[in-house]
């Protein structure tokens, strides 16, 4: 049976498999229930026969004890046959239709002084079919007697036969009817699943909203459809971001390659008149720009992968970082002026990857130097406990790193957009001076990994050139050198 099911079920559809399993369950359940019903009915009928025979035997035994046995013995209804035999197996009294010469039980079956329940062949007592015989001891110690009462089992067998035939006929019809109902119910239940499958088959990945049909009922299938549509929306958004990213990256990578090719083609056409040192300088600048762009793209790809797999351990080293020392190390890379550092009065510690935090500061400083008119200020203050959310009493302690320039600033409407990748607000500026538009996107991702936030604001709102103040909020850490 198990092998047959294992071979059959994989070749059937879900609806058929559910029906086969359900019908098999019904058949097994009905078979066990029918067997239990027949057993209980047979036991109940057998017990009623025994009770009736024993009541008659006890009544006759009471008469025998009082030495008042009538002859013939009175039996109500003619359904019972009664004999009273002595210790030698002789019949002392009998009912009107009982045999007066041959006892119902042979000498090898009869045990004097014990109550017995036996089934014997009905021909021994002049009945058809099996007969139930009960024995009850009677009489006295001087003259022991035994009362034998026989009752035919034909009614019991007939009742069991009728019930068994009804079960054999009714159970298959009931199973067939339930199978038809189950087939329709399972089909109605799986109809939304088929609609989801058809909708999924029609999704081709083309641009535009592609969604699965959502069933009207508020059940598991409806929640599955909603979840799948949410997944499709996330996949579509991710696909759009990837397409835009690939298009922008291809365009940005094409620019330095085109510049390098143009330089080489012009140098080849000029021949001996080519200023090769100048060509080498230009090629070196394009190569450096290309290297920076590739490094930024790889960094963003790695950050995206780590954000998509938050369960994986971070490959970077996280530890305590002293912000004053970090700012001094970054400031030493640039001339002063225009970069001016406001050193903190004491050590300010945070937790993060020193390389990533240094990359944040370098990107912000270079962006400020690119747009500043005369001065860029770098500072760190803290710890602060002002609430980051209005109406909130207090928040975790944090340090504020600020990079301020006196350039044209960024309009408030564009301050969120500049964190998108490959975003440039000044499309007319030279690409060599303007960068690829990845610096602030990298800043936001790295600051977010450090558990902080970055904000943009005007440095001097009333001035003609409001400038830009970039504020990086980093979680404060207790001084690890203090026990």
Automatic annotation (TrEMBL):
<keyword id="KW-0808">Transferase</keyword>
<dbReference type="Pfam" id="PF02518">
    <property type="entry name" value="HATPase_c"/>
</dbReference>
<keyword id="KW-0418">Kinase</keyword>
<dbReference type="Pfam" id="PF00512">
    <property type="entry name" value="HisKA"/>
</dbReference>
<dbReference type="InterPro" id="IPR003661">
    <property type="entry name" value="HisK_dim/P_dom"/>
</dbReference>
<dbReference type="InterPro" id="IPR036097">
    <property type="entry name" value="HisK_dim/P_sf"/>
</dbReference>
<dbReference type="InterPro" id="IPR050428">
    <property type="entry name" value="TCS_sensor_his_kinase"/>
</dbReference>
<dbReference type="GO" id="GO:0005886">
    <property type="term" value="C:plasma membrane"/>
</dbReference>
<feature type="domain" description="HAMP">
    <location>
        <begin position="187"/>
        <end position="240"/>
    </location>
</feature>
<dbReference type="InterPro" id="IPR003660">
    <property type="entry name" value="HAMP_dom"/>
</dbReference>
<keyword id="KW-0472">Membrane</keyword>
<keyword id="KW-0597">Phosphoprotein</keyword>
<dbReference type="Pfam" id="PF00672">
    <property type="entry name" value="HAMP"/>
</dbReference>
<dbReference type="InterPro" id="IPR036890">
    <property type="entry name" value="HATPase_C_sf"/>
</dbReference>
<dbReference type="GO" id="GO:0000155">
    <property type="term" value="F:phosphorelay sensor kinase activity"/>
</dbReference>
<feature type="domain" description="Histidine kinase">
    <location>
        <begin position="248"/>
        <end position="478"/>
    </location>
</feature>
<keyword id="KW-0812">Transmembrane</keyword>
<feature type="transmembrane region" description="Helical">
    <location>
        <begin position="20"/>
        <end position="45"/>
    </location>
</feature>
<protein>
    <recommendedName>
        <fullName>histidine kinase</fullName>
        <ecNumber>2.7.13.3</ecNumber>
    </recommendedName>
</protein>
<keyword id="KW-1133">Transmembrane helix</keyword>
<dbReference type="InterPro" id="IPR003594">
    <property type="entry name" value="HATPase_dom"/>
</dbReference>
<keyword id="KW-0902">Two-component regulatory system</keyword>
<dbReference type="InterPro" id="IPR005467">
    <property type="entry name" value="His_kinase_dom"/>
</dbReference>
<dbReference type="InterPro" id="IPR004358">
    <property type="entry name" value="Sig_transdc_His_kin-like_C"/>
</dbReference>
<feature type="transmembrane region" description="Helical">
    <location>
        <begin position="166"/>
        <end position="186"/>
    </location>
</feature>
């Amino acid at each position: 049976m198990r092998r047959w099911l294992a071979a059959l079920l994989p070749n059937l559809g879900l609806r058929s498999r559910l029906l086969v399993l359900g019908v098999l369950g019904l058949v097994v359940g009905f078979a066990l229930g029918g067997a239990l019903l027949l057993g209980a009915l047979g036991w109940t009928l057998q017990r009623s026969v025994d009770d009736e025979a024993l009541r008659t035997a006890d009544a006759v035994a009471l008469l025998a004890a009082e030495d008042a046995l009538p002859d013939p013995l009175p039996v109500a209804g003619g359904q019972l046959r009664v004999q009273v035999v002595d210790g030698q197996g002789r019949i002392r009294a009998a009912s009107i239709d009982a045999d007066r010469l041959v006892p119902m039980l042979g000498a090898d079956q009869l045990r004097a002084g014990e109550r017995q329940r036996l089934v014997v062949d009905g021909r021994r007592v002049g009945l058809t079919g099996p007969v139930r015989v009960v024995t009850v001891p009677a009489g006295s110690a001087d003259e022991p007697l035994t009362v034998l009462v026989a009752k035919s089992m034909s009614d019991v067998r007939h009742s069991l036969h009728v019930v068994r035939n009804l079960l054999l006929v009714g159970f298959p019809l009931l199973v067939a009817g339930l199978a038809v109902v189950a087939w329709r119910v399972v089909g109605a239940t799986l109809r939304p699943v088929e609609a989801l499958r058809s909708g999924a088959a029609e999704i081709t990945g083309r641009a535009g909203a592609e969604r699965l049909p959502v069933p009207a009922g508020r059940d598991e299938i409806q929640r599955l459809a909603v979840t799948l549509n949410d997944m499709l929306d996330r996949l579509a958004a991710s696909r759009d971001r990837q397409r835009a990213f690939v298009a922008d990256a291809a365009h940005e990578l094409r620019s330095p390659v085109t510049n390098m090719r143009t330089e080489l083609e012009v140098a080849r056409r000029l021949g001996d008149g080519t200023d090769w040192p100048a060509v080498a300088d230009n090629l070196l600048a394009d190569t450096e720009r290309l290297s920076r762009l590739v490094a930024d793209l790889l960094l963003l790809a790695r950050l995206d992968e780590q954000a998509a797999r938050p369960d994986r351990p971070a490959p970077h080293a996280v530890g305590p970082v002293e912000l004053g020392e970090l700012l001094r190390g970054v400031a030493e890379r640039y001339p002063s002026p225009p970069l001016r550092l406001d050193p903190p009065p004491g050590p300010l510690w945070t937790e993060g990857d020193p390389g990533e935090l240094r990359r944040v500061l370098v990107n912000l400083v270079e962006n400020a130097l690119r747009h500043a008119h005369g001065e860029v200020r770098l500072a760190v203050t803290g710890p602060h406990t002002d609430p980051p959310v209005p109406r909130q009493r207090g928040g975790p302690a944090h340090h504020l790193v600020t990079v301020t320039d006196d350039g044209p600033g960024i309009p408030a409407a564009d301050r969120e957009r500049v964190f998108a990748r490959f975003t440039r607000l000044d499309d007319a500026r030279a690409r060599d001076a303007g960068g690829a538009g990845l610096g602030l996107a990298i800043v936001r991702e790295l600051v977010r990994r450090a558990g902080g936030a970055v904000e943009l604001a005007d440095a001097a709102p009333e001035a003609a050139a409001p400038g830009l103040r970039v504020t990086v909020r980093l979680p404060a850490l207790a001084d690890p050198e203090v026990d």
